User: What shape does this take?
Amino acid sequence: MTQVPPIIIFLATLAVLAFAAAAASFLLLVWRLSWSLQGYVATELQRSKYEERVVAMLHDFVETQRATNEQTWMALQVQADRLNRWTEKRISSGQ
Assistant: This one.
């Protein structure tokens, strides 16, 4: 049986340790990426919920403004009709 030189044993040990360190580093990297992606997904879901709330609030605001504009327009039309009748009444009565 031939004897293996000590340098080969040392290099083989270093290679095994390097492989184990690389595997552990890769697993740590994968774990860290999955953790950060979970945080990103949670943040995006929260942002999406906030966007939905903002859109709903804007929709309510637009509807309120539309109703207010309709009421204002109706009030202006009523006042214009009253003014026109009053003007016609003054003209027809000769004043």
